[in-house]
Structures are given as C-alpha cells and as structure tokens.
Amino acid sequence: MAEGFDIDHLAKLARLSLTPEEKALYSSQLNSIIGHFQALAQADLPTTIDDARVVRESALRSDVPGPSLGAEAVTRIAPASRDGQISVPRVVDDEA
Amino acid sequence: MAEVLHTLSAAELGRRLAAGTLTSRALCAALIARYDVLNDKVGAFTHLDRADVLAQADASDARRQAGQGRGPLEGIPVAIKDNIAVQGQPLTCSSKMLASLVSPYDSHVAERLRAAGVILYGRLNMDEFAMGSSTENSAVRKTFNPWDLTRIPGGSSGGSAAALAAGLVPLSLGSDTGGSIRQPASHCGVVGLKPTYGLVSRFGLVAFASSLDQIGPMARSVEDCELLLAALASADARDMTCFGSDERTLTAAGEAKKLRIGIPKGFLGKGVAPEVAAAVNAAIEFYRAQGCAISEVELPSADLAVPTYYVVATAEASSNLGRYDGVRYGHRSAQASTPVEMMTNSRSEGFGPEVKRRILLGTFVLSAGYADAYYNRALRARAKIRSEYLAALSQVDVLLTPTVPTPAFKVGEKASDPLQLYLEDIFTIPANLAGLPALSVPCGQSGHLPVGFHLVGAPLSEAKLLAAGRLFEAAHGFAHQQSTL
Amino acid sequence: MSSSSDWEVVIGLEVHVQLHTRAKVFASSSWGFGQEPNEQVDPVVLGLPGTLPVVNHEAVEKSILFGLVVGAEIPAHCAWDRKNYFYPDNPKNYQLTQKDFPVVIGGSVEIELPGPSRNVMGEHKHVRIHHAHLEEDVGKLSHAGSGSLVDYNRAGVPLLEIVTEPDLRSSAEAEAFLRALVAMLTQAGVADCDMEKGQLRCDCNVSIRHPGAPLGTRTETKNLNSISSVRDTVIFETARQIRELEAGRTITQETRGWNADLGRGYVLRDKEDAHDYRYFPDPDIPTLELSRATVERLAKQVPENLFDRQRRYMDTLGLPFTAASVLVAHRELAEWFELSVAAHPANPQGIANLVANDLLRDLSAAGSTTGFDEAAPAPVSLSSCPIKPAQLAGLVKLTDEGVISKQQAKEVFAEMFKSGQDAAAIVDAKGLRQNSDTGELEKIIQEVIADPAVAKSIAEYRAGNEKAINALKGPIMKRTQGKANPGLIDQLLRKALG
Questions:
Q1: What pTM value is reported for the model?
Q2: Does ipTM surpass 0.90 in this model?
Q3: What residue segments make up the domains of chain A, in order of their start?
C-alpha cells in the first residue's frame, strides 16, 4: 500500500462514491502506479522550477464588458432551474 | 469518380475544387455515402449531422461561385474530435457526463476553420475526456483499427486517426496531452502533429491537463498536415498560454538533407518490438543516406518522464474535471437529497473507470502532506527533463525515436493493466512535458499493422519537422495510404 | 473595553473588497448590483468545458494602486493559484486566487481612534498589512423551500482580499481601521465599498492572551458585511473567549458566523475535509510581470493620505479638528475646499466652516450623497454643486471685509446654493450691504444714548456690567434697519460711553 493512499478520504475529497469492488480494484491499480513513481522520489532534482512562461501586461484583457449568454440560455443548459436561477437540493451549511 | 474521391489528398481535393471540376457538395455526399457503409464497422464517428454538412458545402460552393473562396481549404471537410467545441454541435468528450451537452460557443480553432471555408464534418470518438491510449474508454462506442478490426486504433484521438485510415474524411483534428495524436496516427498509418505548446489556442478544447494539452492536425500526408496546421496556428487573446504563430514556424523550409538527427541513447532497447525497431532503423538509414548527420544524444532523465507526466497530468485533470458536478450542465443524478450527494452521484454515474482512477490519483498527489513528495517534485523533474531536451536540441535539429514501442494491440488485451498502458507512452510524453513540437510519420509495418517514427524539435521548429517528414514521404509509399476497407 | 483580569485581545482582519471595474476579473461579462439573475454570465463565468480565464488589466491596476496607497511593495511578478473545493456557488469548483505570489506585499494603514470628546482628535496608530491578493468572487446562493437557488452574476467579480497583521487590539481599533480603509479605497477610486451592495465583506480573527504571552488560539468569524457587525463580533467573541478561558476551558480553532439580528456568534458546521484545498499554480494563467513603468504611472494617481491632509489643515491652515476631520473624509470636498482657499487664502477657517457645515448639509439634502454603512462616510458628489469654489471664497471675503455680517452670510449662502449667483450680486440685489459709515453711525449712537429709556442701562454699564451694553444695541440696529456693522457699532458705542 502506498504510504498515505486512503481511497475513502480521496473519494470524498473528489466527490466520487465507489462500490467495494471499485475500491478494491482501483486501490490495487493505483498502488502499483504510485509504486512506479519511486523514480521520482529518488531522483536528484534541481531546487527551483524554471518557469519559462512569463507574460507582460499586454497579455491582459482590457476592461471592456463583453456579451453574456443570457439567463434564458443559462437555464436552458442547466439540468434544473427556477425563475432564472439554477436549482439544487437545499444547502444546509452556510459556510462560504 | 465517387469511388476515388475518398482516396485523394486534401491538397489534391483543393486543386480540383479550385479548378471547378469538383463541388464541395459532391465531395461531402460521397463521404457521407462512405460513412453510411463503414462507420458502423469502424466506429470512428459518434455523430454526423448530414443536413448541416451539406448546408455548409452548399454555402462553400456559393462562395466559390461568387469568387469569394477563402483559400486552399475552402470546401474541404475536416472531422473534429469530440472535445473541441463547435457551436451547435455535441461536445460529449465521449463521456456520459456530457452526453446531452450541445456547445453554445465555437472554439478558436472552429472559428479559424470556418474562416478558412472548411466544412466542419461530424464528431469523432475518443477515450473519455481524452484519458486513454486505445479509445476503449469511450462511453459511447468502440472504434476499431481500419487495418485490423480486431485491434484498437490507439487513443485518445482514435476516431480522428481511424476516420483518416478508413477514407472517411481527408483531414481531422485531434488533441494531444501525452501522445494522443501521435500514437493513434502511428497505429493507423497516418500523420499526426502535436504543435509547440502555445502555438494553437486551447480556447474551446475541453481541458484534460492544461499545461500539456494541444490541438493538432491529422492527415494522410505531411503535406496535408501542414495545410491544416496553417489554419490552426494563430494568436488568441482568450488563451493566455497561446502566443500565436510566426510565418517561419509553419512553412516547411530549409534543407531537410542538412538536418542533424539525434537518436536518444538506449531508446531502441526500451521494450521495442523487433519489427518496430527494424522499421525505425530503416528510417534512420534513409536519412543518413540523404546526407543527414546522425548522432547519439544523452537524455539522462528519460526514466522520469512517465512518472512525472502521470503526476502532473492527473493533478491538473483532477482539478479541471471538478467542474462536472451536475449543477450547471451535463448529467445530474436523480439521487440527490443534498448538494454533496447530488454532486457525488452525478460524478460517479457520469465518469468511467479510467477517469475516476486519474481523478483519484491526481487528488492524491495534490493532497495535504503529499503534494511536496509528488506534485512539487514532479514540477522540478519536468524542468529538468525540459532543460535536457533543449540542451540536446541545441546540438541536433530533431530527435528521432519510434512513436510507440509495439503496434496496435487487440481490443481488450490491456484493459486490466493501466500501468502497462501508461508505460507505452514513453516516447511521446517528453514532448508534452517540454512543450516541444512532435510529429509521427508512417514508416513501415509490423506484419499488417502500421508502424510510425517520431520526430521532436525545439520550440517553434515545426518547419524543420515538416521538412524532414516531407523528405521521407516523398521517397516512400506511405503517404495517402489507406486500409482496404 | 475593560476586562475583568489582565487580558489582551488580538484581532486580524481579512477584508474582501470588490474592485471598481466594468468587467469581471477573469471573464469579460459585466457585473453590478441589481441585475436579473444569471444575466451577467458568459461561458467562462459558467465554467463551460473548454473555457479559459484571461486576467482583466484594470483589476490588476486597481490592485497595484491599492498597494501604492498603503505604501506596500509591488513585486516584480505575481501569479495565480487554484483553490480546489466543491460548492454550488463555485462554477469551476476551484477558485482562482493568489497564494504564493500576491500582487501586493506589506504596507500599512494609519487609523484614528475616537478622542476623549467630539472636538478632540484621538490617538493615531499604524496597522500593518500582511499582503493583498486578487481573486474571483463566487455566485450567490439563496434558499427557497426544500431547495436552493444559484445566481452566478456575482461569480467572477474582482475581489481584492486585504489581510492585516494581527495588530488590532480592540473593537474601536477594528472599526477605525475599516473606516480608514474604506476612505482610502474610495478616495483613490480603487473600490466603491458600498456595503449595502455587498461590495465589502470582512472575516474577523480574534484571540485572547495575557499581555506579553504568545498568541492564543484564534477563531475566525466569516462574512461580516457591515462595520457595526465587525465591531459587535469583536466585542462578543472577546467576551466569549475570556469566559471560556476563565472557566478553565480552551478555545477551539473554529470557523464562526455572526447573526446580526440576535447579536450573537455561532459555530459554522465544521466540514471534515473543508481545509484541504490542494492549492497549485494555475496552469492557464502564466506568471505576470508587473512593470516598474506601470507602477510609476499609477504612483501619480495616489491621492494625499487623508490624515496627512488633516494634519496639514490643522497645522498649516489652523483649522479645528472637527472641521478638518469632516473635510478630509471626502476627497472631492477637500479638493473643492482647497480651491476655495486658493481664491481667498486669508481666512481658511471661515471657508472651512461654511464647507463642512452649510455646503455639506445642503448637498446631502439635495441627494448628492449616497448613504451606505451607517458607520462610514457617504461619498459626496460635487459635480452638480450649484456653487463654485471661488464663489464661496467671494462670500467669505465680503464677510471678512465687513460688508455683511456672519449672520447675513448664512442667508446669502442659502440664496447662492439655490441660484448659483455670486455673493456680491445677491448682497446688492437684497440691499444687504452693512452700514459701516462711521460718521453716520456716531450720529445715531449719540441719538440713542440721549434717549432716557436707556439711561439705566448706561449707568449699569459704566458701573461694570458688561452685558448692559447690549440693551443699547437693539435700538441702534433698528435705526439702521439692521444693516449696521455690529463690530463697528460695538467699537463706537464703547468709545462714546467712555
């Protein structure tokens, strides 16, 4: 078992629910994949990441409003809506 | 005439359309007829809107009549992988999650193709969300290799490659994150190019791994590939990682015979099947005979490429696919008494096993306590790999390897061992990690199955790659080859 | 606030401010209060597959401007990270924010505490800023029966999150900090800070310790949307934590909410995995270079710090604290005042008095101010003010020259505000010029003194009763139809009486 690989915890973080069979299968498959990552753990690596991609302010967008989809289009794409808003099951906690 | 049309190159079709000896409508009608005969067998397409195609064709013919043809691609059909947005067309990514989604907007490349007069022709099958190397992970249907219908076409752009090999379309678009254009191109005996990262806008490409993904042209010849690339490469303010193109980048120029070719040390020993090695070695000898300098290059961190890729790609994917939760679009589960339950069930119902595996893996490598050991180390390894490739490419013009170690395997053969499949990306992955352009060109066969070789160049050296590819195909019979379907 | 034993409260604030831009921070749709739901949503805001963020230039400039206003460091580069968590108001289920390389580093905000009385300036203190970063706001959730509804109009609005060091030591300091911050943000044009429209929200971190001891465990109360609720939260939480500690219990590090109606804090449900955000650098937005040329250009837009201005008014112009404080709270008003002083430099206090009282009052009545949080000053718009600065200066000059009395000046001002005419024109039209003809006045004074009706008052005055002189002034004013210069009358009368 790869150290720290807790499939229940990860599934919860990723909003996935797995059957017991899936848990067993994926755990074993992922553990063998992570085992293969040992080369990464042992490699001698540079300490910094040379980020080649730096842009100047010319790459930024000017502050001019563009077109919107419109509430009609948004609600048409959405699986459920009411009065122009997208509806979801009742949110219980109020944490932002 | 109709029997021959599907065998013609895009360049030739363009000439006939321009000369007036062919209409776009006739061409499209012929291809639709062939689609009706073959697509059930090959499974390349998941969707084809015949009425829309013919309407586009008629509009193209009218433009041409009015002297308003838009260039060499006017009236030519290009099939689109189903993860590239075309307004009014499905954008399913071959996933149940997006089965009902019709795109309300055009990708940058769709806009560019329309502006070039292209007929946007159907939606191509793929591994779900571009995750896979065989197109077996499609939730919609199976795609088969036209050279052997018991085998896979490669992936994730399996539909894009199979459609070309079966003569269903002259040009197609694929996307490539770890080899998804080049590997199916190799397996299906066609040409595929992954451009320099940032050359082609990703606006409208459904993201798998943002720092690795690129849209690229696929065709039955290097010449056709070049034609399509020219339409795609352009600056787009809607993608901050896209810097657009440069005239010099795109035109196959320069003396291909003077190219210096580097062969990475040890690469031909890496589990490469003997017939693949033989075909690739023959290609190397061809270039040597042309006068190209061939040398061995060292890429000491080569063994880090696959683990680095699978950490970075799955990390980015786990985040990119977070938006699929049934709230704003796509599949929403009926089992939903709380938002958490709704999101969890929608995702679990909507995603296939490979997608779930990669999301779990990506979540793991980013999670608290493990991000340093995995994700942050992977970023550093990536920087090291990139600098080694750039160093090698300052000594030679292109690096040459096989595209895939082994030819197309049988459907179902590798379904239970994802790690096995991941390891086969060994030749294609580094170009994505380093952001370099890479081209796969057919060079032979292993039995009846196509084999391709793989060229990688320095950033924005598409011209050199295409020149090398043109030199090879001019002297060999692999261009325009199609299966016998 | 007093505490029963030796406790010190330590407060840090995280203030989320919606920046003054027309379009959203990573998407181009417009934003603003009062629109129909989901009308300000484009494919990028909605997080449709294939869409990508592009950073809004103006949002970056406003952020840099804020940094310059607080004297912070503007680094050579900044970058964005993804904060990953699932929630229906979060369209991509990650929020673009800046964790490692924010746009503003350090800086400080000078604050002014209330003085011992209204007229006395309170103590000043500096509150250090840790950093400020530019991120996107999320949509709005509302609850309806058995379900909830989501409106994404607010999703993608540019938010500058300003994080202080834990330098605040009382609810009064927290309140003073927010007032000063709002003034600085609005005066520089960085943000409108209309709290009624949700343009400024605050998270409040509170901990307790004995002075000199290490920092205690803190709690975080989120989403406070008025200055008074921040003040009340600090008071409530301080008392609660003291109570807990004095009862021998410990403080749990928790996230809390504030119920303004009940006046109490409460614990928000503690989600197990709420805190593993799996931050990583956003691969869609390259690192951004922040050029020194831009920083220099924006440095010219930094207005005078309001407390520097206040000190200048008090020290150089001799204004009392109350007038200075009112004037500096409104940048446009202060600038208008300065133009007026430039036209008549001899009496800044006279001009200040009219501007800080009469002009401000009349502008408010005319609706040139928009009311928002009761504790923060409303912005004043002088663009439609009927009076020009030079005209007010002219009015004060007339008063200083004795042409009209201060009492009359008020009457003239009211007329000026209505008609926009010059003071001199109104004085002439109304025939208000004071009589300052010494000869004529001396004659009238002699007549009044001679009247036996005032003999008693004269005698009392000469006996030492100062106030008795006022009894003579009435008849004198009457004989001059109220137009006599009161100062001159007083002077001549005393001379005449000896």
A1: 0.92
A2: yes
A3: 7-42
